[in-house]
Amino acid sequence: xxxxxxxxxxxxxxxxxxxxxxxxxxxxxxxxxxxxxxxxxxxxxxxxxxxxxxxxxxxxxxxxxxxxxxxxxxxxxxxxxxxxxxxxxxxxxxxxxxxxxxxxxxxxxxxxxxxxxxxxxxxxxxxxxxxxxxxxxxxxxxxxxxxxxxxxxxxxxxxxxxxxxxxxxxxxxxxxxxxxxxxxxxxxxxxxxxxxxxxxxxxxxxxxxxxxxxxxxxxxxxxxxxxxxxxxxxxxxxxxxxxxxxxxxxxxxxxxxxxxxxxxxxxxxxxxxxxxxxxxxxxxxxxxxxxxxxxxxxxxxxxxxxxxxxxxxxxxxxxxxxxxxxxxxxxxxxxxxxxxxxxxxxxxxxxxxxxxxxxxxxxxxxxxxxxxxx
Length: 374
What we know:
Layout: H1 6-23, H2 34-38, H3 48-60, E1 66-74, E2 77-83, E3 93-94, H4 99-112, H5 139-143, H6 162-168, H7 175-180, H8 196-210, H9 216-235, E4 241-242, E5 256-258, H10 260-271, E6 275-276, E7 279-280, H11 284-290, E8 305-306, E9 326-330, E10 334-339, E11 344-351, H12 357-368
Antiparallel strand pairs: 1-2, 1-11, 3-5, 4-5, 6-7, 8-9, 9-10, 10-11
Helix pairs in contact: 3-12, 4-8, 8-9
């Protein structure tokens, strides 16, 4: 064999192995945009580029809906912050049902003040009439969504649901009256039923604990001042705006607005067990109660969702992230996710349909997984 042909033969023999090697190479990820990288601090405590990439994937994935704000706090510091077009750090976002968690804290403050009692009959006048079985409903059962009151949270068409009727149709002038007029469909304490109406009952109870007046202006003023001085200002949530109905009742089920940073401060307040810079604003035991599973649904506490399997549709991601995670969750994909073991708080605000929520949760898990213990 002529020696000049040997190199050619050897190269041909090596070709299959070279091709096989090429087939096992991982695909090269496209370079990150300047916007994506700028959203993450230079030293976030984890891989900056990887964190920027999973956040970018969330914003770019139309199948997960429209993300308008994403805030990540790690060890108490903002390590990532990004906004969609036309939104920014000064934008107030409606929390929808994340407001329920604020109402849960409001009730806890009133209990710690001695104005309400957790295990006694809920102080709703119409339920206290002789023979009314609703008089057995306790404040604890209302907080844990097991009052037994009849309620339809969502249905098709949407305007037939009690939530829409209460917030926007025949119940809108006095939402608590609409909620408190509902009959029992189960023995108090026996059935879990997620219910915006239940939180409106709690909102009314909070106002009644502060004043005997039925004057809407007085009720609105006293509840606003109580929230401002006992929660919003001490936590530093100065952007928060709460809405009230015509009867002067806080729409504590769904109508509280705030910036992403202030929603994040609320998550950090919960992560620290109700304290801010060492000052205990509410007994730590109350936050532990909010994070404890309801006897009728292990995935729900007291106005907070828990990262545990549920008999119904999962709201978080059990088995895919730390079991200690809890969250405030609102309509259309509003989230404050708190992971105490990771010292992590994540806020996502935007618009995702029910069909898009599963994909959205996948992206949120990917972000959580970037941090130790995720």
